[in-house]
Design goal:
The structure is a homodimer. The first copy, chain A, is of the alpha/beta class and about 350 residues long. The first copy, chain A, has two domains: about 230 residues, Rossmann fold, CATH 3.40.50.620; about 90 residues, Tyrosyl-Transfer RNA Synthetase. Chain A is built from 15 helices and seven strands. The radius of gyration of chain A is 21 Å and the shape is globular. The interface between A and B is medium-sized, with 25 and 26 residues.
Chain lengths: ~350, ~350
């Protein structure tokens, strides 16, 4: 296979793995790894053997992720998390999908009522449209989960202010509360039964994982939780080539969903590995390993490996030019959006049937 | 009347009033003030006019206090709070009695289950025995009050770490959480309806009142709460003469309930305003204004003012000697205990009938 698992950011991600004490992701640990795992987009993790064992021996474990009900758009980062959740769900994980309404209230001043409305009208149907199986998922709102509250209080005396500062850089009351709440989200399923847990996140969320694992160690006698495992995916780069897509640069950012016309227009201006002139590219070939559009194909648009390999090779040999390649991306995004919208509408109609954990 | 409203601690309490920006308690504001108010044991407050108006105009207001379900004993400080709560309850206050189970978990590592057991088996029946009317009281456990949780999160972004430090001297995660929880306890009844609130506390609890009032100001647009009013009672002095009874000196501390024999034995060694010899005391008279036993009479044992005046005068004139006076205290405590035990047992039998707020 020709896919470079590290892409253009090799050194950067390697540094992260070393600095944070992560383990490199080894796809051999997991049966039928998904596209993200296969292509090295999932690049690292913590305590992965534990999850591998649970899957292989069909033991109980759980996967969880949270919805921050702010903007009524998702991004590729959310999509990757959902795809990974889906992988674990299909491999036997009990799945928890929580709405971080308390955190949204703290961080974004969104009322609990508004957070609920947004989650029900957009985020939860969108997560289902992207592959979460609602019948196999436990949903809850943070503000309705009393067990969570109890853990937040219990954990509060296990971490000092200086430790918060060491992990988060800054410690203020609302951040402390948000961080303790995330740890409680990750661990509360184990109040009923101790079991391994997998949390798929972007690398920027690792501080929460570290905090949670610290808390697990410190509450060993009190709770005896099993430390959560985690996997990390690489960022989807910005269309202008910088490391992470961000709404702050709307012309370089693709949202989910977004009008395909708008996306195709943005793709036309995306940074590629193309040469100065068509002639030069026909002769020397393109540089897919430097190309944002190829990275999008790899991360999101092209599911089949042979198809991706063909694009790579056709680019390398000068057969496939950037314009055509961007057209492929444009078509794939358009198709993705159509499918997403259909599934989304279907999920939204059934939203009343969902059951939410309350305690 | 001869009762010195400030007793031997006049200057100290005056300083507190000035330093903390309190108002002196003016008993004329309140119809039929209770013994503690009448005798200057309740010595200060905040925003008392607001409560006075509510009582006089029969407007809605509420009183609240919390139970910390730690030791299965009360102290005179609890008794004074309960007597004041009772006063406001009898004067029309909607009354909230909360079990601070989340705080007990943080501060004393008591599990929520243990906190519940203690509250139901001891504290709540004891509070009822001391005069809380259970039929007119809303009880709740912090851990079961979701509205409280929401307020804790909402308040967390209104106070900075430095401000916590300024109020409490120290800021660590569990203290921050405990303080925010107290503010939420005080204010959550106003989520349903804005109304004045009175919180009777010992002066050492004033930081919580200040924090809560700060939060009220800062959440004006968001919640529009009315700032809580408060009243402060003086400490019951230790039998050895120091300013506050404390369990750390068990021989100088009377608990509620405690075996009357043990109490009478301790009373015999209490610091009094007596003279060196009986002869001298017969001639010069005693000094009740310096006497711990007289302070106990004044604060707790002697309900009727004319009776207290007689003890004061008989001491002053050398007619009542310390031994006899201590015997009065001993008899009163014994009688108090008998009555307490009877009421306590009665309240405990009915504990299943109490209704707890849940949300």
């Amino acid at each position: 296979m020709l896919i470079d698992p590290w892409g253009s950011e090799l050194l950067e991600y390697e540094k992260v793995v070393n600095d944070f004490g992560l383990e490199l992701f080894n796809k051999k640990l997991f049966p039928k790894p998904n596209r993200l795992m296969n292509r090295g987009i999932v690049f690292a993790g913590r305590d992965l053997k534990r999850i591998s064992d649970a899957i292989k021996r069909k033991k109980k474990f759980y996967a969880l992720t949270g919805i921050m009900p702010t903007a009524q758009k998702l991004h590729f980062g959310n999509k990757m998390v959902i795809e990974n959740i889906r992988y674990f769900q299909e491999n036997g994980a009990k799945t928890f999908l929580l709405v971080a309404d308390l955190e949204a209230m703290i961080a974004r001043k969104i009322s609990l009522e508004e957070a609920r409305r947004r989650a029900l009208e957009f985020h939860i149907p969108a997560y289902i449209a992207l592959g979460i199986n609602p019948k196999k998922t436990f949903f809850y709102f943070q503000s309705e989960n009393r067990k969570l509250t109890k853990l937040v209080y219990a954990f509060s005396r296990r971490i000092t202010l200086s430790e918060f500062r060491a992990i988060y850089g800054k410690a203020d009351p609302e951040r402390i509360l948000a961080a303790l709440t995330q740890a409680a989200d990750i661990l509360f399923p184990q109040l009923d039964e101790k079991m391994p847990c997998i949390v798929p996140v972007g690398i920027d969320q690792d501080p929460h994982i570290r905090l949670t694992r610290d808390i697990v160690r410190r509450t060993k006698t009190e709770f005896g939780f099993i430390a959560p495992s985690s996997i990390y995916h690489k960022y989807t780069p910005s269309l202008d080539g910088s490391i992470k897509m961000s709404k702050s640069k709307p012309e370089s950012c693709i949202e989910l969903p977004e009008d395909p016309d708008s996306v195709c227009r943005k793709l036309k201006r995306a940074l590629t590995g193309g040469r100065e002139t068509i002639e030069e590219q026909r002769k020397k070939g393109g540089q897919p390993e430097k190309c944002i559009v190829f990275e999008l194909h790899k991360q999101h648009f092209i599911e089949r490996d042979d198809e991706l390999a063909k694009i790579f090779n056709d680019c390398k040999t000068g057969k496939l030019l950037c314009k055509e390649c961007k057209q492929i991306a444009c078509e794939r995004y358009t198709k993705f959006t159509e499918e997403f919208n259909k599934k989304f509408e279907k999920a939204r109609k059934k939203i009343d049937r969902l059951k939410f954990l309350k305690d």
